[in-house]
Every structure is written in C-alpha cells, then in structure tokens.
Amino acid sequence: MLGAVIGDIVGSIYEFNNHRAKDFTPFFNRRSFFTDDTVCTVAVADALVNSRHPAEALKDWGERYWENGGWGRSFALWLGSESLEPYNSYGNGAAMRVAPAGLMASSLEEAVRLSGQVTEVTHNHPEGMKGAAATATAIYLARSGSKQDEIRAHISETFAYDLSRSVDAIRPTYKFNETCQQTVPQALTCVLEADGFEDAIRNAISIGGDSDTIGAIAGGVAEALFGIPDDIAERGWGYLPQEMREVLTQLYRVAGQTK
Asked: For 240, what's the count of Cα atoms within 13 Å in the CB-facing half-sphere?
C-alpha cells in the first residue's frame, strides 16, 4: 500500500504537467504531495482492517482531507452528498485505491472478492469493477511469487486487457484519460516491464496522462513485486500525517507484513 502512496506522491506534480521521460529529478520533488488517491487508499485500508462500510470510510477520510483535492467531479458530488449508493462509475479511482485488497487477501478469490467489496460502493460499472479486480489480482499474484510474464499472461487472459505494447510504444501517443479501460493496462505494463520499484514509478510517470493515478496503480503492484527500497519508503512515509501512518501500520500488521 505504501507503494501506491509513493506513486501518487511522485506523480502529483506531473498530472497536468506531464514529463514524458524517465529522467525526472529529484524522484521526490519539493512540490510533491499526497492527493485524493492516497486519501482514498487509506480509506479503503481503514474499511478493510476495521470492518467499516467502505462508503462511510471514503466519506469520512474525504471530508478530513478535502483540501488535498484532485477529486473527480462525480466522486466529489458523491462525497458531498448523504447518499451511500454507487453511481455506476468506470473511472480509474476504482483501481488507484484498491491496493489494500490485494495486500490483505489470502487467496486469489479473496483478492477479487475484497476488491469488489470496496469498489461497488461507487464504481459499480463493469469496467470499474474489472479495473479494480485486475489491479488487486496483480498485487496478489506478485505477493505470491508470480513472475512478471506470469502476471501478464494471467491478467491478459482473465480480464482481456491488452498488455502487449511496451512502455516505449505507449509513451508517444498516450493521452490523459481517467477511465479504467485506458489507465489500468498502461499502469500494469509500466510495472511488468520494470526492473525494480523505482523503475516502475519512472515508467508510470514517463507515459504522461493521469500521472498520480497511474503512479498509484503501478506503485501498489510494484511494491508487491519488488518491495520498496528503504530510502524511498522512508521518504514516502514522511509525507503522511500520523493518522494515515497508523492505518498503514495496522494494515501491514493484519496482512502479516511490515512496512
């Protein structure tokens, strides 16, 4: 989950100012910050580890960190309403917040079930559910020791995502898009072609588009696949307020891991 947070933080300054190369420096820019992607990921973790209704947790954390912004229009309207009903979204918010489901799952089936549980409260469109499930599945498979080519084959076969294009092939023509359909395959490709955690995040930033969300999706999978270098983990941890750190710590404890 910290991997998703770091991807969000690193990508935060590039969402509307894309940097289509991997050579950006420093890795953590002084203007970087955690966005709604991190807020929603923490909310999902809180819901899972504390048996909270996911919609209530999302509204609670969204209200606390409203100023961190970047909320999609439909999601912002939902957050500000009294409704706990979904609104048939297929936006990439479904995938950027789902990392805790993949981390907590004890089986592939549970990864998909938990993904659906935390996604259907807002993104109940089939493409929204699919994007979240594919991301949680990739995280579970990576945690379980599957290799990159094995994850690629499973995701392609199960979810019918085209993961055949390379990062270099995606980069020149990729455009800003907030749907799962045009975000999740690209983000997964950035990880499945990487040689380490930092390389996965650099791939994600380099293709442009919705950089913080692509970074968050890629970061959650990259953490499960490669782990996070200690120095990067500590820098990312330092961006978070104490109450978010406590949720992360609790999640890792329940999942039987350490930060």
From this structure: 27
Do the Cβ atoms of 135 and 191 come closer than 8 Å?
no
Given CA atoms 196, 68, 170, 91 in this order, what sign does their dihedral have? positive
Phi/psi of residue 120, each to 5°? -65, -15
Average confidence (pLDDT) per 10 residues, the chain, 259 residues: 98 96 97 97 98 98 90 93 96 98 97 98 98 98 98 98 98 97 98 98 98 98 98 98 98 84
If we measure between CA atoms, which residue out of 197, 191, 198 comes closest to residue 226? 197
pTM score: 0.97
CB 236 within 8 A of CB 9: yes
Q: What is the pLDDT of residues 198-246, one digit of tens each?
A: 999 999 999 999 999 999 999 999 999 999 999 999 999 999 999 999 9
Q: Is 209 domain-assigned? A: yes
Question: For residue 91, is it within any domain?
Answer: yes
DSSP for residue 112 = H
Give 118-136 as a 3 state SS string: HHCCCCCCHHHHHHHHHHH
φ and ψ at 91, to 5 degrees? -70, 160
Number of structural domains the chain divides into:
1
The CATH code of the domain that includes 160 is 1.10.4080.10
